[in-house]
User: Fold this.
Amino acid sequence: MAVLYEHEGVFIHSSSEDSEDQGLLVSGFLRIIDKDGEAIVDYKPLEDAVDPTNMLCAGKDSSSVVEWTQCPPEKPHRTVDQQQSCETEWDMVNTISFRRKPYTNGEGGQKNTNKWAFSISAVDLKSITVSAEGWTHVTFHLKDDTALPTIHFHQGGSEGFMECLRKCVHLSKSVLSTSNSSTLSQSFENLLDDTNYGLVQKLKKDPYTTTLGGFSKVTNYIYDAFRGSDLEYRQRPPEEMADLLGEVIPGLEINQQEEPGFEVITRVDLGPRPVVRRREPLTVEGWLKYQDPEGRMRNVPDLKKNIFKGGLCHAARKEAWKFLLGFFPWESTYEERKVLQKRKTDEYFRMKLQWRSVSEEQERRNSKLRDYKSLIEKDVNRTDRNNKYYEGLDNPGLILLHDILMTYCMYDFDLGYVQGMSDLLSPILFVMESEVDAFWCFVSFMDQLHDNFEEQMQGMKTQLIQLSTLLRLLDLAFWNYLESQDSGYLYFCFRWLLIRFKRELHFPDVLRLWEVMWTGLPCQNFHLLVCCAILDSEKQKIMDRHYGFNEILKHINELSMKLDIEEILHKSESICLQIKNCKVRVCLQAGVDVHSSSPSVTPVLPNCCLATSSHLPLTPQ
Assistant:
């Protein structure tokens, strides 16, 4: 008998209604034993364990929701390299023919002296569920549906356990719809901080690292996270796949009627890309023409269209941004805005007083506030220091940055401060030149981007999936090339989406892009079209030079401060009109057109409400 794996600090959390056991934490050893060619998973509470000297000390456990199940014998199996997704379900296939051996669960078989002890053969396992909510915990599901207690890895070690189990059995993936969030959290941490802090600390450290090393780390995590979804789609039944694709791209439909010998699918004929014209920035005089004598903004759709087409001159931004960001209602009068301004000023300084009145002794007992304060102080001192508004020592602009970010922690203490927020605040404060106005405009901007910074990172994951879907529709050949280089999920766009291109463009260009996006034209997710426009400009170089995984990351990273904002805006709008005017063709699998003269439709891309005639005309201006 050989011990293949052993780990102490594995707990069972008793949920028994027995008052004696209720709330009990049982600590023990978990082992994988090779006994006469048979893999045995053995758990013994501490008092029953023997030979505790052979202990494994694992590092930070980063497992997420994973499930392993046994697949039918005819199901093909995948190599270990294909089995690294943290968002999938795995099938268990025995590597050799095992002799069946009864397991025990506190009674029968091997005489365990403790009711929490159990010993099971790998051949008796139906599935294993691994979840990373709180401590990573593992639940074993047996073929005869016998219930075993869930084990919790308080001191890590679940990765080592699963890795050892992989050496004993083959794992084959099957469908699991549960979404994985911790993988994206890790990607965020690794992209934005190339230091050696723990994962929880990394989330709050430097998100601006632009080294290739930082990008390489994030891609590994995101690639694993999305790879599971891709394989999941491949294994779903055709009718379920049709439903899923319909949810992602409602404008694309798959005919599920049985027609032997043919697979009827719907394809999109994008047609030519229209030429668009942009305009000069809207001046203060032009802005004032949209105000009535009482200060209400008139003809707001046309005003937004003018801002989308040309942006704003800098002198008009201070007032216009308050409307674009929702601080001032479009229909408000001068007097109503004065009342609102006074109320919001009072509210702001009440919140500011909360953190300023915290004593040193109170702060010592509030680790969360302490952490927020420390991160803000570090970030403020390295935010846009080349900009005259923030350069030099003891700059008042830096003090305002610090105070606004600290006050935001009082406004939304659950989210608090996450690295990257200072980048979003800096241009707003630069334009507003007012602590109170900048704060409330920042609050509105954060309302739009809140999901980007939440620990679950669901907003980032959704946007990356949407962007991949959009690029696949626009340029299948380029998407296929990226996919062949393990880059099909566009994880190199992570920073673009996270802080809305703040680190990719020169400061004045950031102001122009943001005010254009805040109009909500020509669609709510215009930033995804901006990503596509940038990639469209770079695709030929990437493909002609046969860039691989690392070269693509390096190339995208080096685009920072080399992008032409007007070219990007032209192309983004043109792509939007191209999609808007596209036609759908029904084709056979072999590519033969069935209906090439189908009526025009507007595919509704994920959460991307393409422009209607009231927003942006179908014909180019």
